[in-house]
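Encoded backbone
================
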Amino acid sequence: MYKSSNSTCPSTFVIIFLIKDILPEEIQQQIVRETFHLVLKRDDNICNFLEGGSLIGGSDYKLIYRHYATLYFVFCVDSSESELGILDLIQVFVETLDKCFENVCELDLIFHMDKVHYILQEVVMGGMVLETNMNEIVAQMEAQNRLEKSEGGLSAAPARAVSAVKNINLPEIPRNINIGDLNIKVPNLSQFV
């Protein structure tokens, strides 16, 4: 995520989802900056697609974006994709975010990035559009939320792990653990129990 330092547009954001394992963070930041400058310098009455910048792949790729209030949603696609199809896909994505977050804003995207990624993965995965029915996407999101609540959420996982270890009923603490050629000597932990 890159926040604008432009004083005429203080709350403008450009959101791009990059696969972190493929590109180093420095290159990711350069791509975000270049994309931000390419999109922000365009007038509102100009079309919403342009050729990708030098870091993005030049004429082999297109940037397709939509501007909603203070948010820009930018998709980078190869040149064979339909611009109008991607604009429609962005519309579905944003309307789904709006349904899930009740009037989506920058803070929702920042503090609920995991949910934003989940919604995006319900819409697109591996470069393929999976679902465009907003009601189905919202239903899947609600099912995911119910599952997280029933499991106590991700934040409760460490506490559950600690309580599970404490509740192990061993008659005696093992002093030596032998796994194949590996021999592990367990120190005396009675002072911690």
